[in-house]
Amino acid sequence: MTNSTRIAHLDMDAFYASVELLHYPELLGKVVVIGGRNVDMPKQLADGSWRYARLGDYVGRGVVTTASYEARALGVFSAMGLMKAAQYAPDAYLLPANFSAYRHYSRLFKQAVATISDRIENRGIDEIYIDLTHLPQSSEDLARQLQEVVFKATGLSCSVGISPNKLLSKIASDLHKPKGICVLNLTDVPTRIWPLAVGKVNGIGPKSQKKLAQLNIHTIGDLAAADPAVLQDRFGLSYAQWLKEAAQGIDHRPIVLSSEPKSISRERTFSRDLHVGRDRAELTAMLTAICTQLEQDLRQKGYRAQTIGVKLRFDDFSILTRDLTVDTPVLLASDIIHHARQNLRRAHLRDRRLRLIGVRAAKLIAEADCAAFDSQPMQLALGDFF
Ligand code: TTP
Ligand code: MG
Ligand code: MG
């Protein structure tokens, strides 16, 4: 990578909430929360006005998918239980998630960006990295252009960070949200990056943050100043080295051009915590339902999967994930279940209580490219967990 490499990270502002506001513009500027299961769609009354569900009336275990900035100002954030959120914002308008609309706007904004640079790496439904190295304009001009084309195509706003690499750009796009533009260079790292919390670095998750806090490392600057030997002792050599580089704003990862989805997943939160031993029948039914749905998703999108992963959330909210990659890509629910169970067997689950189970299909191979794999039926293992 040369010194002049220029990468943008573009992230939509309050994405799901903003898409809903396009449909219900009267909610603009209001406290709006998206989430839950079994949340009523807004109903249009005889006089043409809409009636919305009220957060304070919600009963159940659904979580906040996203919240408008007005709701965030009251303390409501993604992944918070809806009933907890209701304590902060009882009068919030509560809308169910409408994923097909979000996918539609996701496609629209990515297509719009491709008119400026088609060197795009998908990072999820509402964010992308864009290689701008080959373009002559200034970074500020390009950031404004990106926001303009996205707004024209979707009516939605986004924030853009531009820097020499993905790590810094990802941090930068978040710094001036919403409608933010932030251009950073490596020389800005001490002043702009070091004061930030270590959690702002993509790749330093809650677990590592906790361990770092035990070493009294809270900001990225603390990390930059930390003794490499101490980090290596706590995290092992390779993660310690990565942490030190990240703290200097160094990142050599190239843009991975992508137009294909990375993974498809489905998950369910149970209406009560389920015990792995005692509630086996219910868990089996749930796992079957999830995998059947995944098969439908794969068929609809035209893929098979070589990696099957499971995600479990326990009653104490801790999360466990396990992945398994196989030679022959799978499509059928029965095969997905088989691999999911193999993952589960590798986790120590007896006597645990679960809140949520999810299954993820990754390493997706287009159906058209699957003919090369022979379709030997698989042997189902006995003694599967559930
Ligand atoms: P984010 O980009 O993290 O959040 P956001 O777009 O709502 O807000 P921001 O302006 O801060 O970027 O996530 C994009 C969408 O992904 C979000 O609108 C809803 C969804 N999402 C979840 O479903 N669960 C989650 O825990 C998070 C964080 C997001
Ligand atoms: Mg976003
Ligand atoms: Mg995002």
Key structural traits:
alpha+beta; Alpha-Beta Plaits; 386 residues; 15 strands; four-stranded mixed beta sheet; 4 domains; MutS, DNA mismatch repair protein, domain I; binds thymidine-5'-triphosphate; five-stranded mixed beta sheet; DNA polymerase, domain 1; binds magnesium ion
Mean pLDDT: 92
Strand order of the largest sheet: 8-9-1-10-11
Global morphology: globular
The succession of helices and strands, N to C, reads EHEEEEEHHEHEEHEHEHHHHHEHEEHE
The residue fraction in helices comes out at: 25-40%
Output the number of helix runs.
Answer: 13
Distance between the termini: 48 Å
Oligomer: single chain
CATH topology of the largest domain: Dna Ligase, domain 1
| Proportion of residues in β-strands | 15-25%
Radius of gyration: 23 Å
The tally of strands reads 15
CATH class of the largest domain: Alpha Beta
Helix-strand category? alpha+beta
Tell me what you see in this structure.
By secondary structure, the protein is of the alpha+beta class. It has four domains: 7-13 and 101-189, Reverse transcriptase/Diguanylate cyclase domain (Alpha-Beta Plaits, 2-Layer Sandwich), CATH 3.30.70; 15-98, MutS, DNA mismatch repair protein, domain I (3-Layer(aba) Sandwich); 196-247, 5' to 3' exonuclease, C-terminal subdomain (DNA polymerase, domain 1), CATH 1.10.150.20; 263-369, 2-Layer Sandwich (Dna Ligase, domain 1). The chain has 13 helices and 15 strands. The protein has helices at 15-23, 69-72, 82-88, 99-114, 139-154, 166-175, 189-193, 206-214, 220-225, 228-235, 237-247, 280-301, 333-346; strands spanning 7-12, 32-35, 43-44, 50-51, 53-54, 64-67, 93-95, 120-122, 127-131, 158-163, 181-183, 263-275, 303-314, 319-330, 353-366. Strands 8-9-1-10-11 form a five-stranded mixed beta sheet. A four-stranded mixed beta sheet has the order 5-7-2-6. A four-stranded antiparallel beta sheet has the order 12-15-13-14, covered by helices on one side. A hairpin with a 4-residue loop joins strand 13 and strand 14 (319-330). The protein binds thymidine-5'-triphosphate and magnesium ion (2 copies). One magnesium ion is lined by residues 11, 124, 126-127.
